[in-house]
Automatic annotation (TrEMBL):
<feature type="signal peptide">
    <location>
        <begin position="1"/>
        <end position="20"/>
    </location>
</feature>
<feature type="transmembrane region" description="Helical">
    <location>
        <begin position="781"/>
        <end position="799"/>
    </location>
</feature>
<dbReference type="GO" id="GO:0005886">
    <property type="term" value="C:plasma membrane"/>
</dbReference>
<keyword id="KW-0807">Transducer</keyword>
<feature type="domain" description="GPR158/179 extracellular">
    <location>
        <begin position="262"/>
        <end position="366"/>
    </location>
</feature>
<feature type="domain" description="GPR158/179 extracellular">
    <location>
        <begin position="640"/>
        <end position="737"/>
    </location>
</feature>
<keyword id="KW-0325">Glycoprotein</keyword>
<keyword id="KW-0297">G-protein coupled receptor</keyword>
<keyword id="KW-1133">Transmembrane helix</keyword>
<protein>
    <submittedName>
        <fullName>Putative G-protein coupled receptor 158</fullName>
    </submittedName>
</protein>
<keyword id="KW-1003">Cell membrane</keyword>
<comment type="similarity">
    <text>Belongs to the G-protein coupled receptor 3 family.</text>
</comment>
<dbReference type="InterPro" id="IPR043458">
    <property type="entry name" value="GPR158/179"/>
</dbReference>
<keyword id="KW-0812">Transmembrane</keyword>
<dbReference type="InterPro" id="IPR054714">
    <property type="entry name" value="GPR158_179_extracellular"/>
</dbReference>
<dbReference type="GO" id="GO:0004930">
    <property type="term" value="F:G protein-coupled receptor activity"/>
</dbReference>
<keyword id="KW-0675">Receptor</keyword>
Length: 800
């Protein structure tokens, strides 16, 4: 009987389960989502209930919103989502432009649209250029896609067309004998190649269980309306100095509701990638139907959607309680295990979908124990046993706090001299461009010079003054990573097209090879870089001499004059013929050309397994004639960052920094690769955050260790989003010290510290001398009877 009771109790305990890492931890929202994810896999997803294939909409919080991108800073735990957002917008702008670019060219009985391989390789490049993006697709509405890839197919549409690429797990692939997952193998499919009677595989059907991305924008019923789609204007100047203004319809503008990008709920990509994905969806516009002969019945319509997706488990979650900056919706709000009596939660990035992506900071009025150096790390708190949790991870109360002084006074002579001796660069300093060339930089004078150069004053300086040292742009490779990846993506696409697509290849049946890249396609791709990412002020695709079809020089260069605009400009820089103006003589072009003149072994090798449609109506899939195939292209590290410069004679008259990425194709004999050109994007220097905190001696940061924290009692921590000005940091108290003031924060703000230090330099009333932490020697000002008694006895013994 006893054994029976024991077995029953054990079975009950097993059925209840343990949801936290330890039994003492209560089940919360994170555990619920984890259980739902583990419930679905590749084997059982076809028979799961539809609701089980989706997670709650608030399972991903703090989604990038284009209305806030240029207002509020985007923090590191959302930069991957932001890039997904920008890539989806860029793809939508390009396809909308190129599908309507036929109105630029003369009317002929053929289509100017890109061929099928252009679509396939475009989605491949979306994924190959960014390890965080795991899938890219273009889903056309039924009978909305035109193609030049079949003979006799003019003004006919394919029933369905949906080129999609997703990153394959090549760990066990026979082409990789090392048995190591390279992340460089892609599965490419045309999801529109289906039988007419197969509703469950028709992505436009109600029976396709995971097509929420399709329903976000399609079908688009706009019959009878010509004014439902946002228009964008492009002024084009060609190499022969002829001009054209082209207006095309695109996705909704940033100032419209709900904006151009819609997000899907996290869903299980059943039968395809078999992963939990999150997608950004942007509509693609076209004038539909085509070639009717009656323009008034051809309406701007959303004919397709661009969908880019990333793995759900690579997205950071925010476990902190709701508050300012975390107002919700957030499914994981208040699941952090910080002790709310003495600590508060602060999220940190890089943890993905797992617990512990936060730290527990002391609340105002509390300080860390003297044996603790930094705030309690959430991962350590989550792994703690019950005994450790209840006995540790507390902050100690500060027993005596100051009021912040209201009346300020001018610093005394010896105090002011002490600080000017410590920061001697403020006593004897250079001004103008010379302030950047001193042994100890006066950051205020350096920024005064940089911020003082503009379109009107740049002519006053020498060309050497308008090129800064590279260490001025410290952090650009990290803060402008998304923009650099946009250039890498286009360079990867051109490399793939030049190496994979052969316009002279002959196929069986009606299918024909893609034509060579056209001027309109390259103009559209370059323009899409500027339109898709607001931080990119100009972009160019610069072809090497005689490498573009039927052109000696070709360099479409797109730029904008304002930050938020719907008017853009494009010029073919091949029209410039002066020696100092020719783009092939630019330092960044020469650098990459020389670097990649002979040896290409370091390039990334990308493998593709492409399956295309059996015929023009779809029916089924078949392997592409070259299966599997590969191409070589540059990655992010193979590009080149320029030093910051002010292009006084250029189109973008700002302090800028340029990133350039090379692309490659076969030589005339198709024996070896050769350098074909570069893709360059340019960003404003003033959108960088200045880092004034100390770092190792070899770190190339011109503003390193220019902060004004009291080094004896505090240390400097950078604050993101402050821009190219001083004060982008906070002064946190060192171990064994405490913040002495009654305040809502527990640190000295860098902007306030810099302002008060400027008052000392100018000999104005200041409180800078009070910005130092206090030694944490006692928890209160109350005396101890035992200590007083011991002191009395010791003194009495000494006086005998």
């Amino acid at each position: 009987m006893a054994s029976l009771l024991y077995i029953c109790s054990a079975l009950c305990a097993m059925s209840m389960g343990v949801y936290g890492q330890y039994e003492w931890q209560a089940r919360d929202a994170f555990d619920e989502v984890r259980l739902r994810m583990d419930k679905v896999n590749a084997d059982n997803c076809p028979i799961q209930h539809l609701s089980d294939l989706y997670l709650p909409e608030d399972a991903v919080s703090h989604l990038p919103d284009i209305k806030e991108i240029n207002i509020n800073p985007v923090f590191p735990n959302r930069t991957a989502l932001l890039h997904l957002h920008n890539m989806a917008m860029s793809r939508s702008f390009f396809w909308s432009y190129i599908l309507q670019a036929r109105f630029i060219r003369p009317a002929i009985n053929d289509t100017y649209d890109p061929g099928m391989m252009y679509y396939f390789l475009s989605t491949v490049a979306d994924v190959s250029a960014n390890p965080y993006i795991n899938a890219s697709a273009i889903y056309f509405a039924p009978n909305s896609s035109y193609t030049p890839s079949y003979r006799g197919f003019f003004n006919k549409t394919m029933p369905r067309f949906a080129p999609r690429t997703f990153r394959a797990d090549d760990f066990n692939d026979p082409i990789h004998l090392e048995r190591i997952s390279t992340l460089n193998t892609f599965t490419v499919r045309d999801l529109g190649a289906i039988r007419n009677d197969s509703l469950s595989t028709d992505y436009a059907s109600e029976f396709y269980r995971i097509n929420e991305w399709y329903k976000k924008w399609l079908p688009d019923n706009v019959v009878g309306r010509h004014d439902t789609k946002t228009t964008y204007q492009v002024e084009i100047r060609y190499a022969n100095n002829t001009n054209e203004t082209f207006t095309f319809h695109g996705p909704p503008g940033a100032d419209e509701f709900p904006g151009p990008v819609k997000w899907t709920r996290p869903y299980f990509d059943c039968g395809r990638a078999n992963k939990w994905l999150v997608g950004a969806v942007v509509p693609i516009s076209d004038i539909y139907p085509r070639h009717t002969g009656f323009r008034h019945v051809e309406y701007p319509t959303y004919t397709a959607v661009a969908v880019l997706e990333m793995d759900f488990d690579r997205i950071d979650i925010n476990q902190c309680p709701k508050g300012q900056g975390n107002s919700g919706p957030n499914h994981y709000a208040d699941t952090a295990r910080c002790k709310k009596e003495t600590t508060e939660c602060e999220p940190i990035h890089g943890w993905g979908f797992r617990r512990g992506g936060y730290q527990c900071r002391c609340k105002p009025g509390f300080r860390l124990p003297t044996i603790v150096r930094r705030p309690f790390l959430g991962e350590i708190v989550e792994r703690a046993t019950a005994e450790q949790y209840y006995n540790d991870f507390d902050c100690e109360k500060i027993g005596w706090v100051h009021k912040m002084p209201v009346q300020w006074e001018t610093a005394s002579h010896h105090v002011r001299e002490m600080y000017l001796e410590r920061f001697y660069e403020y006593r004897n300093f250079s001004v103008g461009a010379r302030s950047l060339h001193t042994s100890k930089m006066n950051i205020d004078q350096a920024l005064k010079f940089i911020l003082g150069v503009n379109e009107r004053t740049c002519k006053q300086y020498t060309p050497q003054d308008l090129i800064l040292h590279g260490d001025i742009a410290y952090g650009a490779d990290e803060q402008f990573t998304n923009e650099a990846k946009m250039a890498v993506r286009l360079a990867n696409f051109i490399s793939a097209f030049l190496q994979i697509s052969d316009p002279k290849e002959v196929y069986s049946g009606k299918r024909v090879a893609d034509r060579p890249l056209s001027e309109d396609q390259m103009i559209g791709e370059t323009l899409a870089l500027v339109m898709g990412d607001t931080k990119i002020w100009s972009a160019g695709t610069f072809w090497e001499r005689s490498k573009f079809t039927n052109r000696t020089f070709f360099a479409p260069f797109a730029y904008k004059k304002e930050l938020n605009t719907r008017k853009f400009k494009v010029e073919d820089l091949a029209r410039l013929n002066k020696t100092h103006e020719i783009y092939t003589n630019k330092p960044w072009f020469q650098f990459l050309k020389q670097r990649w003149s002979t040896n290409f072994d370091a390039l990334e090798k990308f493998y593709m397994k492409v399956k295309i449609r059996f015929n023009e109506t779809g029916e089924s899939l078949k392997k592409y004639e070259h299966y599997p195939n590969f191409y070589r292209a540059a990655n992010l590290d193979h590009g080149h960052w320029t030093a910051p410069y002010f292009d006084c004679d250029g189109k973008v008259k700002h302090w800028v920094i340029t990133y350039a990425s090379p692309f490659f194709g076969w030589d005339s004999l198709k024996v070896k690769l050769e350098f074909k050109g570069i893709v360059a994007v340019t960003m404003r220097l003033l959108e960088l955050d200045v880092n004034q905190c100390p770092d190792k001696f070899y770190v190339p940061n011109a503003f390193k260790d220019t902060h004004k924290c009291d080094k004896k009692t505090s240390y400097c921590v950078p604050i993101l989003g402050r821009g190219f000005e001083t004060g982008g940091y906070k002064c946190e108290c060192l171990q064994g010290y405490e913040y002495p003031f009654e305040d809502l924060i527990t640190y000295f703000d860098g902007q306030l510290v810099e302002a008060e230090f400027s008052n000392i330099v100018a000999n104005n009333p200041t409180r800078y001398d009070m910005f130092s932490c206090r030694l944490a020697g006692a928890s209160s000002i109350h005396g101890s009877f035992v200590v007083l008694l011991m002191v009395f006895l010791i003194v009495k013994l000494l006086l005998r």
